[in-house]
Amino acid sequence: MLEIPIKTSLPLWYAVFPLLAGVAYASVLYLFNRKNKFGNKLTALMFVLRTVAVALIAFLLLNPLARSVSTHKEKPLAVLALDNSASMQSTLQDSAAFMENWEALKEKLSDKYEVSAVGFADGFGESDTLEMNRPLTNINKFLNELNNRYPGERTAAVVLASDGIHNQGVSPEYATFNPGTRLITVGVGSEEEKTDLVIQQIRNNEVVYAGNEFPVEVLVRAKEAIGKRSELSIRKNGKKRLSESINISNNNFSKTFDFYLTAEEEGLQEYVVSLSPVDGEENTGNNSQSIFMEVVDEQSEILILAHAPHPDVFAMKSAIETKPRYAVSTEVLKDFEGNLNDYDLVILHQLPSENRRSSELMAQAFEAKLPLLFVLGGQTAMNFFSSMDAGVDVDGFNGQFNYALPALNEDFALFKLSATTKNWLNECPPLTVPFGDYSLAMDMKTMLYQQLDNFTSSMPLVALSDNFSQKTGVIAGTGLWKWRMRSYVLNKDHRAFDEWFYSIARYLAISQDKDFFRIFTQNKYAGGSSVIIRAELYNASYELDNSPQVRIVLTNTKGEEFEYLFDRVDDKYELDLGNLAEGVYKYTASTELAGNAYEKSGAFVVSGQSLEMRRTVSDFDLLRKLSSKNNGFFTEQSSVNAVADSLLADDTAKPVLYSDTSYSSLLNKYWLLAAILLLFSLEWFLRKYNGGY
Q1: What are residue 431's phi and psi, to 5 degrees?
Q2: Coil vs helix vs strand at 252
Q3: Is the pLDDT of residue 404 over 90?
Q4: Can you list the positions of beta strands (E) in 297-414?
Q5: Please, what is the Cα angle at 443 between 440 and 446, to 5 degrees?
Q6: Burial letters for 232-269: b for 16+ Cβ neighbours within 10 Å, e otherwise?
Q7: Whole-angstrom Cα Rg for the chain
Q8: Residue 430 DSSP code
Q9: Which of 266, 421, 555, 589 is buried deepest, with most CB atoms within 10 A?
Q10: pLDDT, position 34
């Protein structure tokens, strides 16, 4: 079918009217005007010239559009990905020679491919220069992000240069990859075992108490160092505290050493665990590792007060005691003769009950504004409980109970839980909860909802308050001991339950009086990550106010001081300190509002970047598996030319032709206007030359 390259605002057959107009105009001028006496041939020529010129002018009134088609060619895409993690420092022997070959590869491929060079470490990076300074490697995350950025329809190949060492995320073997893209891996470094000593793992308490002895467990590994000797030592402030001689008995040596130290100074303390190097050891970056711990002078006191003995009490006590920060006492109501004011948190199991002593203790707790956690059960006096300012009311209770499963509230933000703990909550058995209508106070935040018969209700199973004057929490059911047992069944330990309940107890036990100036930091920042500090300032009406400047003085391990100003973000403050060197940092933040001066001090830790240095031998086996699964091949860094030869000979990687069709008005075509003018000029010249008028 013939396609006409012109469009008009009206149907194209309307073009007959401009033609008729041209014929009519020329007819009046040359056929019906007897004054023009020209020969037949000349008359016919001028008739045609006038007809065409007038017809073209009339045709332009239809706003005709001329179609044009342009064709361009896109080369297939080749992505060159370079591992920029810190482990490359020890595996890559001659970085200059490697980068020379890498740049030559880009140049060779550019004739046939559009080359995009990127870097990666813990995911996708923009820099393609060899920096080798990133603290973590997540190849799986990088490959998944690569798929999203470079669709497989156009991406012909990905060339990935790496030592194959990964220490974050799932194994790259399970990464999904675009099926139409070849993955070629270039192995950097060597699989040959070298003499190397490494501190593989250190286990220690994060919190210890002044004057107490605490254990430090160190796992040491040594490769290709049989018959050699080293010394494992622990130092503080450069002074050796403990050491032990190591005789390496085989080429695949592994041994755990136990040390016991005494906590002395309060605050965050740094200890350096190190191995003395041996002959022939090239990489000593993994021979030392710092550990940090907080030395505190006293424990917070927590009381678990129960109406009667119950297995829930042991489960809660065991969870809190996993952290030495808290001392836990358990009491039965009828035997309790203490003072609630001696405790930082009181956990009430099936209390208040129908007991005079219970009523007296409740009045004392609310008068002292003690943090309280209620665990509701069959012995709880529900009417009495609902009459208190606990944050949760249960109306219409008539002695009946339901079995409710936990359903996590994804919007709960008072504190965070690990993915393992969240998964465990989805597998927990039901709690025995009172049947009734639940209502929450404005300051209560639901952590877990009640799931009844596969339906997630709006009723709380666990709720906590963010009230400044008195924190309260409610667990609306008994059977927590079953949750702790479920944690062991799933994970062979109690960590999921312990983390969950300890997080609740810690949140409630931390005092949060109406402090007008607050500083928020993490206790520990991972090496290589940004250190971000946030601050809040409140006025006399307890409204956020960030009008004044907030200063902070940071002091590093060497005693050097650095002063910064916070940035204003919305109605709060934030300061991004970027990447800081490993060590303990103390800070003092200060500001002034309405004539009142405020100051806050504290400390945090930046941990070392040792994960990348624990392995110094490349993992070519992983790279081989990746390439074989994705239509590619593996080669070592010395044979990079094989990559270029293969890709240049690949007949399946062909350029793609794209056609773009566009339309433009004929009114903008100068050649058409010139043609019309030429027609009129020629017709006028012939007429005048032959005596016409």
Answers
A1: -95, 155
A2: strand
A3: yes
A4: 300-306, 326-332, 345-349, 372-375, 392-395, 401-408
A5: 55
A6: bbbbeeeeeebeeebebeeeebeeeeebebebeeeebb
A7: 40
A8: P
A9: 589
A10: 60
Query: HSE on the CB side for 278, CA within 13 Å?
Result: 21
Higher pLDDT, 535 or 292: 535
Higher pLDDT, 135 or 418: 418
Closest residue by Cα to residue 404 from 431, 364, 375: 431
Q: In which residue are the tokens 């023009």 written?
A: 36
The number of beta carbons lying within 10 Å of the beta carbon of residue 676 is 16
pLDDT category, 1, cuts 50, 70, 90?
Answer: very low
Packing angle of the helix pair 16-26, 40-60 (nearest 10 deg): 140
**CA–CA distance from 278 to each of 194, 226, 275 (Å)?**
12, 11, 9
Residue 112 predicted with pLDDT over 80: yes
Question: Higher-confidence residue: 359 or 86?
Answer: 359
Cβ count within 10 A of residue 492: 8
Contact 445, 277 (CB under 8 A): no
The CB-based long-range contact list for 249-253 (8 Å cut-off, 24+ gap) reads 250/226, 251/193, 251/223, 251/224, 251/225, 251/226, 252/223, 253/220, 253/221, 253/222, 253/223, 253/225, 253/226
Look at phi and psi of residue 102 and say left if phi exceeds 0, alpha if psi is from -120 to 50, else beta. Answer: alpha
Look at residue 616 and tell me whether its pLDDT is greater than 70: no
State the amino acid at position 643 in one-letter form: V
User: Which tokens in the block code for residue 677?
Assistant: 């003018």
Considering only 131-135, 239-243, 276-280, which range has the smallest mean pLDDT?
131-135
What's the gap between Cα 558 and its chain centre? 32
Backbone CA torsion sign across 384, 386, 392, 395:
positive
Distance CA 142, CA 73 (A): 29
